[in-house]
Design brief:
- The chain contains no helices and 36 strands.
- By secondary structure, the chain is mainly β.
- It has 2 domains: 323 residues, YVTN repeat-like/Quinoprotein amine dehydrogenase (Methylamine Dehydrogenase, Chain H, 7 Propeller), CATH 2.130.10.10; 75 residues, Immunoglobulin-like.
- A 5-stranded antiparallel beta sheet has the order 1-26-25-24-23, with no helix packed on it. Strands 2-29-28-27 form a 4-stranded antiparallel beta sheet, with no helix packed on it. A 4-stranded antiparallel beta sheet has the order 3-4-5-6, with no helix packed on it.
- It starts with 20 loop residues before the first strand and ends with a strand.
Length: 442
């Protein structure tokens, strides 16, 4: 069976574009000239809170009394570690590093007042932070869940680890009327063994103190230490970025994710979704962009900003249309820094008609949930067969000529006995062999 992907193949294609920006203007930059490599950023009223791995959280004021954008440092919170994080909700600031969480009151944003803390006695490297009711989620492939109902006495309630070999990942939460129940989605890579590859694990967090695993989805093998990040949830959709691919799932039932399609994508470091504005803001190596989520199946580009010497690491929002990006520059002499961008596009106007031609960058073959997705750059003969580990032919899936494009094949093995199958693809005389992991029929 051959079917075109449902997600527009050009939805994430960035260009090339002739200019360094479109619908985004640079308002200000800031740096203290110190070296750092890991960042997080949050905003509250007229203040920006920048966390990095050496100095904790730097407090910056954004505007002067005349309303001009003049970023300057006004304070600092001592919470620096190997990978600091910062987040804000309801006039409270949450920050920390490794195994430490601190909570501060922002009644005076320039002078946060310490309320309480907790130490988990675990070594972990946070990447994403999210809130869910009285709970604070922080981590990466391992997610730590804190009860924050009493800000003066936060405490760790549970830890979610999808695999003892999990590495290189992130997570997202979703709790909307569009989902069957509140859910946590953890992306991760298993570098070695029969389960090697990139995965998504889903958990029921109706009771955050007792998360319940409900499903796992295999995305494919992209490399031994390939990041599965970021992950962004919007309504009943989940966007999963893996290397140069982005996967789209329907998460109405978190226990049975429905694969809707995928497309080519650059590597993103962080993603912020604004549901009230139907926008997605993305931070990349040297690229920041705004996407429209009005049609979740084809998220159109609304604006971008390009800076060749910057490595953007994190994105935050400061009301109106102002976006903060923490980053390093130049790439080989990292400095603790901040870029403040302003999205100038009018969301009430029709989207500009922009040509985004999708030209396959080369041959690629990826297996997702019993389907093989092929990207073919030019017309040639394709042969596709499935074998068991002993070399016995299991399925003769396809043999014939295909033109340039992206194709999807049902391998016909989802209900086969559990185990590893070998998928052989021959295109242009070149043989490629992939592993397909089958858990067995229901």
């Amino acid at each position: 069976m051959i079917a075109l992907l449902l997600l527009s193949a050009n939805a994430y294609n960035k260009g090339p574009f002739p200019d360094s920006s479109w619908n985004m203007e640079l308002l200000a930059t800031w740096t203290d000239g110190d070296t750092a490599t890991k960042f997080d950023v949050a905003a509250y009223q007229n203040y920006i809170y920048l966390a990095h791995n050496r100095k904790g959280v730097t407090i910056l004021v954004m505007w002067d009394s005349a309303g001009k954008t003049v970023v300057k440092q006004v304070g600092r919170i001592d919470s620096g570690g190997i990978r600091s994080f910062v987040d804000i909700r309801d006039s409270l600031l949450y920050c920390g590093y490794n195994d430490l969480l601190k909570i501060y009151s922002l009644s005076d944003p320039a002078n946060p007042v310490f309320l309480g803390m907790d130490s988990t006695d675990n070594y972990w490297v946070p990447w994403r932070t999210q809130f869910h009711g009285d709970y604070f989620f922080v981590g990466g492939v391992t997610v730590y869940i804190y009860n924050i109902s009493d800000p003066t006495n936060p405490y760790l309630t549970s830890i979610v680890t999808p695999s003892e070999w999990a590495d290189c990942g992130s997570f997202a939460l979703q709790d909307t009327p569009y989902c069957k129940y509140p859910a946590l989605f953890v992306g991760y890579t298993v570098p070695w063994g029969p389960d090697s590859g990139s995965w998504i694990a889903s958990y029921n967090i109706a009771d955050p103190e007792n998360p319940v695993w409900v499903s796992s989805r295999y995305l494919g093998f992209y490399g031994y230490y390939t990041d599965v990040e970021p992950i962004a949830a919007y309504l009943n959709y989940l966007y999963v970025f893996v290397w140069d691919e982005v996967f789209l799932f329907d998460i109405s039932d978190p226990g049975h994710l429905i694969y809707l399609g995928s497309s080519s994508s650059p590597v993103y470091f962080d993603a912020l979704v604004r549901e009230d504005a139907s926008k997605m803001y993305l931070a990349d190596w040297h690229w920041a962009e705004v996407r429209d989520l009005t049609d979740p199946l084809d998220i159109r580009l609304l604006g971008w900003y390009k800076a060749d010497s910057i490595t953007f690491r994190a994105v935050a929002w400061q009301g109106g249309r102002t976006i903060m990006l923490a980053g390093t520059w130049p790439p080989y002499i990292p400095w603790d820094g901040l870029y403040i961008l302003h999205y100038t596009g009018d969301t009430l106007e029709p989207l500009p008609a922009m040509p985004w031609p999708h030209e396959p960058r080369g041959f690629s073959a990826i297996i997702v949930d019993g389907y093989l997705r092929l990207r073919i750059p030019r017309k040639d003969h394709v042969s596709l067969r499935v074998f068991d580990p002993s070399g016995r032919l299991v399925e003769d899936v396809f043999s014939g000529y295909l033109g340039p494009g992206v194709y999807e094949f049902d391998l016909g093995i989802r209900d086969n006995p559990a185990g590893i199958y070998l998928v052989q693809v021959i295109w242009d005389g070149e043989k490629t062999t992939l592993k397909a992991f089958v858990k067995g029929g229901d």
